[in-house]
């Protein structure tokens, strides 16, 4: 049963990933995130989002990872099929009311809206292990270097060089 489910996920992933995926360029993603109102949202800045997405997916919208518990994680923010979306295999809360496949295409506004729900939940950005490990408490100013964005670097960590 599990093997069949896994095959189904892989099959579905291959079909979708070949259609409309995209690997975002850092500054292009920064602009998208800023436009969607993430700078300062719940106290997190664009540098937090770029750092997290880099370590989660390498900015690749088609990225899927499979967990030992049978759930899978989808897209640029690696949202989990047990909580945030429905992949038709994992029992899910589906808190974002969406199909996990919609997290794999180049259109990331729905991914961003779902990520906003994640940071509104208890634990906020700590939901992403990679953010806790690689981004939290770090100077994230380099993530926006060279980008034509309005967002300044995280004010708590900003140093004049
Ligand atoms: Ca999407």
Q: Enumerate the strands of the largest sheet in spatial order, edge to edge or round the barrel.
A: 1-2-3
**Structural domain count:** 1
SSE order in H/E notation? Answer: HHHEEEHH
Helix run count: 5
Bound molecules: calcium ion
For the record, the CATH architecture stands as: Orthogonal Bundle
Termini, distance in Å?
Answer: 57 Å
What is the number of E strands?
3
Helix content: 25-40%
Low-confidence stretches: 157-161
User: Which secondary-structure class do the elements indicate?
Assistant: mainly alpha
Q: Outline, from the CA principal axes? A: globular
Biggest sheet: strands, sense, closure? 3 strands, antiparallel
The CATH class is identified as: Mainly Alpha
Mean pLDDT: 90
Radius of gyration, in angstroms, nearest whole number = 16 Å
Note the beta-strand portion. under 5%
Q: What is the CATH fold-level name? A: Lysozyme
Family: Belongs to the glycosyl hydrolase 22 family.
InterPro entries: Glyco_hydro_22, Glyco_hydro_22_lys, Lysozyme-like_dom_sf
GO molecular function: lysozyme activity
Protein name: Sperm acrosome-associated protein 5
């Amino acid at each position: 049963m599990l093997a069949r489910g896994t095959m189904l996920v892989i099959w579905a992933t291959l079909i979708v990933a070949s259609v409309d995926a995209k690997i975002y360029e850092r500054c292009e993603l920064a602009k998208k995130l800023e436009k969607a109102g993430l700078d300062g949202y719940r106290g997190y800045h664009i540098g937090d989002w770029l750092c997290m997405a880099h370590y989660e997916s390498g900015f690749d919208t088609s990225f899927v990872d499979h967990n030992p518990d049978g759930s899978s994680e989808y897209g640029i923010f690696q949202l989990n099929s047990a909580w945030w979306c429905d992949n038709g295999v994992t029992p899910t809360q589906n808190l974002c009311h969406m199909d996990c496949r919609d997290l794999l295409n180049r259109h990331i506004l729905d991914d961003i809206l779902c990520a906003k729900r994640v940071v509104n939940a208890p634990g906020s950005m700590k939901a992403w292990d990679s953010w806790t490990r690689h981004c939290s408490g770090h100077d994230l100013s380099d993530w926006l270097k060279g980008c034509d964005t309005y967002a300044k670097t995280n004010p708590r960590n900003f140093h004049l060089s």
